[in-house]
Each structure stands twice: as C-alpha cells, then as structure tokens.
Amino acid sequence: MDSRRAFSRWPLLLWAALMCVGAALAGWQHDAPRPLVLALLLMLSGLYGALGQMKRLLLLAEAGLAEPLRAPPESARAAELTQRRMLRNEALLEHAPVALWHQSAQGQVLPLNNAARRLVAPGGATDSADLLARLAQPREQSAGHSLFSFESERGSERCLLAGRDLVLGQVPERLLALMPIETELEAETLKAWRQLVHVLTHEIMNSLTPISSLSRTARDLLEEQGGASPEDRQDLTLAMDTIARRADSLASFVGNYRRVSELPEPKLAPLRLSELFARLEKFTGAEWAARGGAAVFEVEPASLTLMADGGQLEQALLNLIKNAAQATAGQTKPRLHVAARLVRGGRLSIEVRDNGPGVPAGLENDIFLPFFSTKPLAKPGAAEGGQGIGLAVVRNLVHGMGGSVRHVKPISGGAAFVLSF
Questions:
Q1: With a threshold of 0.90, does the pTM exceed it?
Q2: Rounded-to-integer distance, Cα 242 and Cα 84, Å
Q3: Which of 257, 272, 407, 408 is deepest in the core (most CB within 10 A)?
Q4: 114-136: pLDDT as tens digits
Q5: Which residues in 92-203 belong to E strands, given as ranges?
Q6: What string of DSSP letters covers 292-354?
Q7: Are 295 and 283 in contact (CB under 8 A)?
Q8: Are 139 and 132 in contact (CB under 8 A)?
Q9: Phi-psi label, residue 342: left if phi above 0, alpha if psi -120 to 50, beta otherwise
Q10: pLDDT tens figures, 381-404
Q11: CA atoms within a 13 Å half-sphere pointing along the CA-CB vector of 203
Q12: pLDDT in tens, 315-337
C-alpha cells in the first residue's frame, strides 16, 4: 500500500480520539460548569475535524488518490473484475451481427447468440430442422469458408459459413459462424449489371447511328442517280429501307434497356401507403374487373407509412401488377392481391400475388436478371411480350430505396413478389 494513502487515514483517527476524550471529560466534569463547557468544546472540535477529514478522504477516493476506507481483499476484487469481463464478453457475443453456433463432439448444433436464435425461431428459416441438420454436416476443411443458402419467409438467403475446430478440456468442439451476404451480393450484382448494360447500350448506339444515317443517304443517292434498272432500284431501295428501319427499331430496343442503368436517385420522404394503394386501385381495378376478376389492395394498419420515393415505388408496383396481368391472361377469373403490413422484426412488407401459373421451376433465381424473360420475346418497340427489363427495373428501384424484392412461391399456387423495407 502507498504510504501517502495509508497516512491519510491517521488524521481521521486523531480527530475521533479527540472527540472521545471530550465526551469522557464532559461526563466526568458534569457538575463543574467551566470544565464541562471546555469538554464539550473539545468534543465538538473533534467531531467537526472528523467530519472534515471524512469528507476529504471521500473526495480523494473518488479522484483515485486514496484507497477506500474498506478496501476489499485482492481476491474479491479480482473475482469482481473477472465477472465484469465475462458479462461484457457475453453481451458482445449476444449482439454480434453474425449467427454463431456451437457444435458438440456428438454433432449437435446449438445457437450461441440472438442472431442464431432468430434463424431457428418463427419468421427465420422456413425449415429450422433442415438448417440445423445441414450445419451439422461434416466438412473437409476445419477452418474453411463456403457459401451456404437456406429458404426463409423473404425467399432464398445466402450466407458465408465459416467453422473453427476447438479442443476445450480435451473435448473436441466446433464453432460455426453464418454471415449474411445476400444484400451485399445483390448490390454487387446490380452494380455489375448496370455497368455492363451501360457499356453495351453505349457501344451499340454508337454503331447504330451511322448505320441508320448511311442507309438513308444511300437510298437518296440511288434515287438521284437513276442509272440502275427499275427492278434493281426497287430492290436496293427496299434493302436500304429495311436496314434503316431495323436500325431504328434496335435503337428503340436498346433505349429501353438504358432504363436499367440510368435510373434517377430516389428522393425519400414519408409516404402513406393507403393513399398510394388508392391510386393504384384506381389505375388498375377497372381493367381486372373487366376481365371478370378482381384486384384487392389492403394496408394494415391504415396509417402505415414508409420512407420512400413515391413515384419510384409506384412505378415498381405498377410493373409487378402488369406482370401479374400478363401471367393471368389465360385465367377466367384472374385475381390480384396487393397487401402491405408489418412483419416480424419490425420490417415493412408489400406483397403482390396473383393466381397465374407461377414462375417455372428452376428459373426463380434468373427472373430478375436483365434481358431474361419467361414470356415470348417482344418485337423491338412493342408494348407487349418479354424484353427482360420489367423485374430488373423493379429490383433496381426497390434496392435504391434501401429495400429488397424476392420471389416467393405461394402454397396455393400462382406467383408472389415480396418487397421488404
């Protein structure tokens, strides 16, 4: 112990002793007024000095310049420090942003933190038993990384799975970590596609412009020269017209794909979904009713509000509704159901569901790619048919507003697209 810190207690003991002496004298000289007064003054002086010294010691202790009056034993302090560290480490483990699992020597996999427990709880993995069974499968590398995917309420989720073998108390165990990368992979995919589409459309347009211009110039020169026979002139004119027309159509076709890479930045603002759904119902409800079906729009609760770009979210939903109308073209009673609600975890979900044939099996992961379509290819410039940009635009718009869009296969059939924010 530091001698200065130890010495700081002695004045307190001296003042207390002085107070006791004064009290003793006061009791002994209670019949003599003068000594009694002096004894009381001596006692009060000791009390005042003791209180002052006590206050000083408390201030020094708070500043770390003096030891507490009752310092706990070193073992108790070490145990308290160890307990605090353990509680801190448990809190860090509990709130880690990755799902951590413990695999015993018998192969049983148990969640270690909140992120892992959420995956096996309702609202997490669709089949939690299958998730645990796949995590328990042996792997070649003890500390390797691999891509791991599972189905959830929001669709397919991709994660990075890492494992580490441990030996604790001569018992082999394994620590597993699932790091979600679906959002990051989707963002990188969108970025790569935007860059590719931008380069392709730029180069194609640079080539189409002179082709169209030169074909028209050649046709004009052919009409001015007049040296060829009428039959040859007619054939050449038709050929030049065809080249010019196809170049214009292809330019229009490429211009549509530019929308994938040149979307404006969203302007986020509070958006009342009941008002947005009322506009969508007004735009599309009559068309579905005319086909003998119905379009239902629901918001629960009615006061549901989302930070989004109203125009871009409306455009994304209109694209999904248009796809639903095309998918149910062969239905005698087509149905559309658009619903917005809060789901587990405080997320906001917008679901667009139809009763059409649904997405063909095996193509669920391709339908959001630019240029990919399950419908017959549309002619350039045509309004109907598949050009492969509708869902790509939807994904770009939703992702730009901080959300995600997934395809979900309903049990009752048809197709459903879920926008999560």
A1: no
A2: 81
A3: 257
A4: 888 888 888 778 888 888 888 88
A5: 99-103, 109-111, 145-152, 155-168, 171-180
A6: T-EEEEEEESTT-EEEE-HHHHHHHHHHHHHHHHHHTTT-SS-EEEEEEEE-GGG-EEEEEEE
A7: no
A8: no
A9: beta
A10: 444 445 567 787 888 888 888 888
A11: 6
A12: 899 989 998 998 898 888 999 99
Helix (H, G, I), strand (E, B) or coil at 163: strand
How many other C-beta atoms lie within 10 A of the C-beta of residue 33?
9
Tokens of 289: 């009713």
User: Which whole-number Å values give the CA distances from 248 to 136, 207, 361, 376, 378, in the listed order?
Assistant: 58, 12, 36, 21, 16
**pLDDT value, residue 253:** 65
Q: Which residues 6+ apart lie within 8 Å of 400 measured at CB? A: 263, 265, 266, 309, 312
Which of the 8 DSSP states describes residue 70?
T
Buried b or exposed e, range 267-300, using 16+ CB within 10 angstroms:
eeeebebbebbeebbeebeeebeebebebebebe
Q: What is the total residue count of the chain? A: 421
